[in-house]
Amino acid sequence: MACLVGFTVNLITVAANSMKWKSQRSLQTCDKIVSHLAISRGLYLVSVIFRISIFKFFPRLLKNYIFLSILYVLNMFLFHLSHWIVTVLCVFYCVRIVTYNCALCVFLRSRISTMVPWLVTTSLIMSLLSSLPLALKSINLYLVLQIIFFISIL
Prior knowledge:
Subcellular location: Membrane
Mean pLDDT: 83
Pfam family, one: TAS2R
Largest sheet: none
Membrane topology: Multi-pass membrane protein
Order of helices and strands: HHHH
Keywords: G-protein coupled receptor, Membrane, Receptor, Sensory transduction, Taste, Transducer, Transmembrane, Transmembrane helix
């Protein structure tokens, strides 16, 4: 139930920002980050709902190791992606709020709007890299299980 409520809230956020973008032909930087966050959280919640539904209505798929591996790697990727985008949002707000006059703060404050697309892309790459070990572990474990299966047949 909580997943459906969360998905609905994220869907409303994306719809509101889409209508704002359609009427104004542009979005503020914080609205872009919030839209990316809502999309990533919405996709994560859809994957959780999908996983729960599959396990409840199709328990025989629990025996399919490839399907489970793909599902867990996808969940891990979307989970890390949403956390990295939250980090980008926090950095954006911190840079906007800080009133220090050091050279780095002034540089970041003047360039943060142009850096956000690169930060979101970096968050995508970082989440992909952080879910990659799980994918490699799943592939290796699958190969080991296949070898054990073939040895047991002989």
